[in-house]
Design brief:
By secondary structure, this protein is largely without helices or strands. It has five domains: 65 residues, no CATH class; 43 residues, no CATH class; 86 residues, no CATH class; 40 residues, no CATH class; 73 residues, no CATH class. The protein has four helices and 18 strands. β7 and β8 form a beta hairpin.
């Protein structure tokens, strides 16, 4: 009987799946010892898996089989990246975790004056957070000059005493409203979110008089005459209920030259935008305001001639603004109607905006009356439009129907 010969299986004949399986078994072991698969190998029928597939030991103790592991010089990890030494660090964590020297400094150090300054804030040492303010001094560059100690934000008021009497009440850090009576000055009530007075005892400062309108139960503080103000102040009756103010006296130097009201109108004692056209600049044109109006503000026009010179079809100056018409008679036949809301030709809001005999039924266009005056009273036949159906044949369209 003949003997059969058994040829050892070379590594070159092992499929890629077998090679992966061999490495996987070595990883499961994780002990640094060799693991073998009978019948598979290069010489002795086994594959030594004592080393990690990346060319280095898994725990730093086992040898590496150079016949199986990839070339560490070409495939291994970058030498600049730390590898697991298999030993715990001082904190009891594996060295594969984040290096403690790279930890987020904010988690232990908190804020600093330098990093808060980047956002224009200050460092609150009690919380370790950047905040808007710790004291009122931190609000110097803000629109509001007080610091709320609870929210560390700059606010307009902390209590009713911080608000002027013409805008009484402090709620949520801002003047002019209330939630409860405690938000209001003394002798005021808070019936509907606003502080109300029932007599002069609830008023003072720049608004010394309680003004009650009609049959209202409560009123609001203000002034109605200069005699109600003290200390040489005057009453600006154009500001709501009126407010007492210190009048300016010098046209050139009494007002802030960098503000929007840089000059003093001595007749009223108020700082205004302009005294002459020269204070308004040269911003001519329809949207410009190159003229100084009677109230000290720069306006579009002061006379009709200011508008006519623009050549924009708006030749009338009404309330310091140029308008296209005053009545329908100012409008051409092809632009019927003078809109009483916009003072422009070509539309209407009420019948009186239209010529006699015409109406404004849609509140946009004058209709009816004489067609020569802009109205259109023509029927479809007059306009050259055929009727779509012939009533004589029962409404069935024929060849003559449009």
């Amino acid at each position: 009987m003949g003997t059969s010969s058994r040829t050892p299986l070379s590594f070159s004949g092992v499929s890629a799946v077998s090679a992966v399986l061999a490495v996987g078994l070595a990883l499961v072991g994780c002990s640094g010892a060799s693991a073998s698969i009978p019948g598979i190998g290069t010489e002795g029928g086994t594959i030594d898996t004592g080393g990690a597939p990346d060319g280095g030991p898994l725990d730093g103790s086992g040898p590496v089989d150079s016949t199986v592991a990839p070339d560490s010089a070409t495939v291994g990890p970058d030498s600049s990246v730390a590898v697991d030494s298999g030993k715990p660090t001082e904190g009891g964590l594996d060295s594969g975790a984040q290096d403690s020297t790279v930890a987020n400094p904010d988690s232990s150090v908190g804020c600093t004056a330098a990093n808060c300054a980047v956002t224009g804030q200050v460092c609150d040492p009690s919380s370790g957070a950047c905040v808007d303010c710790l004291t009122a001094a931190d609000c110097a560059g803000s629109s509001f000059g007080l610091c709320d100690p609870a929210s560390h934000t700059c606010v307009e008021c902390l209590g009713p005493a911080d608000c002027p009497y013409d805008t009484p009440g402090c709620s949520g850090g801002f003047c002019g409203s209330c939630v409860t009576q405690a938000d209001c000055p003394a002798n005021n009530a808070c019936p509907q979110g606003s502080c109300t007075c029932d007599g002069n005892a609830g008023c003072g400062g720049d608004a010394p008089t309680c003004i009650i309108q009609g049959s209202n139960v409560g009123g609001s503080c203000g002034c109605t005459a200069d005699s109600q103000c003290s200390g040489g102040q005057r009453c600006n009756t154009g500001a709501g209920n009126g407010v007492c103010f210190t009048p300016c006296t010098d046209p050139a130097a009494a007002c802030d030259p960098t503000s929007s009201q840089p000059v003093c109108m001595t007749s009223t004692g108020q700082c205004v935008q302009c005294l002459t056209d020269g204070d308004c600049g040269a911003d001519a044109g329809f949207f410009g305001t190159p003229f100084c109006g009677s109230m000290g503000t720069c306006v579009q026009c002061t006379t009709d001639s200011d508008c006519a010179s623009m050549g924009t079809g708006t030749p009338f100056c009404i309330d310091d603004a140029c308008a296209g018409c005053l009545t329908y008679q100012d409008c051409p036949a092809n632009m019927t109607g003078c809109n009483s809301s916009t003072l422009l030709c070509g539309s209407c809001t009420v019948d009186s905006d239209c010529p006699p005999g015409q109406t404004c039924p849609s509140a946009t266009t004058c209709t009816g009356g004489d067609a020569g005056m802009g109205g259109d009273a023509r029927g479809p036949e007059d306009a050259g439009i055929d009727a779509p159906f012939d009533a004589s044949d029962g409404g069935v369209a024929d060849a003559g129907d449009g």
